[in-house]
């Protein structure tokens, strides 16, 4: 092993259901506006256009069940998403072969400092300040596809303080999981440990300190996240 001149950063590794092993995270890709109704509520045309992605950092994924309200914002929004975990990758992956690279699926939230994201949009600047802040992606354990199958349909939902705020079906995704993997592999070389957050249905909105968020996807159970 090499000698490092500073402390080496820890590897983000997530619990795997039914296993003592953990899933190590390499990169986190997030697709934008992947449900037609959400595209409309964000002021965009829902017609199928080429997908676009932004990234979060591996250590933004947080399985603790607690979301600390971040600094420098007064408008933090929830976005419930299906997370896709890859066991292998490559370049120029065919759509028909894409699911063979999936290790499993899980629950996630793409928490967004909407006011800061909006400022960046107006100036034509990157979104990271609104999307990639600390603990901005609460995440549940990884469910192996060998146990739950490949999820192409099923209810996805978010409740805040017991009230349903977001609801949809995975079959409403404009770009399906195999298509996302294939497209990303044309732009990047995908690899084991990569995570894809696959977009959110309509109904995004703000949270406040003390709120309780409960996300669920059919076949993956539910997870509660407290806003600290």
UniProtKB/TrEMBL annotation:
This is Fumarylpyruvate hydrolase. It comes from the Bacteria. Residues 28-227 form the Fumarylacetoacetase-like C-terminal domain. One of its GO terms (molecular function) is acetylpyruvate hydrolase activity. InterPro entries: Fumarylacetoacetase-like_C, Fumarylacetoacetase_C_sf. The keyword Cytoplasm does not apply. The keyword Hydrolase applies. It holds the Pfam family FAA_hydrolase. Keywords: Hydrolase, Metal-binding, Pyruvate.
């Amino acid at each position: 092993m090499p000698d490092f001149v500073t402390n080496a950063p820890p590897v983000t590794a997530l619990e795997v259901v039914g296993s003592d092993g953990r899933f190590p995270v390499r990169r986190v890709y997030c697709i934008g506006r992947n449900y037609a109704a959400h595209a409309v509520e964000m002021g965009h045309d829902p017609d199928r256009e080429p997908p676009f992605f932004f990234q979060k950092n591996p250590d933004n994924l947080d399985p603790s069940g607690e979301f600390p309200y971040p600094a420098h914002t007064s408008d933090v929004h929830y976005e419930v998403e299906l997370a896709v975990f890859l066991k292998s990758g490559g370049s120029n992956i065919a759509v028909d072969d894409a699911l063979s690279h999936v290790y499993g699926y899980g629950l996630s939230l793409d928490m967004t400092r909407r006011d800061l994201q909006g400022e960046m949009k107006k100036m034509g600047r990157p979104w990271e300040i609104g999307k990639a802040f600390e603990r901005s992606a609460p995440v549940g354990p990884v469910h192996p596809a060998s146990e739950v199958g490949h999820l192409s349909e099923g209810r996805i939902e978010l409740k805040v303080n017991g009230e349903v705020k977001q609801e949809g079906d995975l079959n409403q995704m404009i770009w399906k999981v195999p298509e996302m993997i294939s497209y990303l592999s044309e732009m990047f070389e995908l690899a084991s440990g990569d995570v894809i957050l696959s977009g959110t249905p309509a109904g995004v909105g703000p949270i406040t300190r003390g709120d309780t968020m409960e996300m669920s996807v059919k076949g993956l159970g539910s997870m509660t996240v407290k806003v600290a």
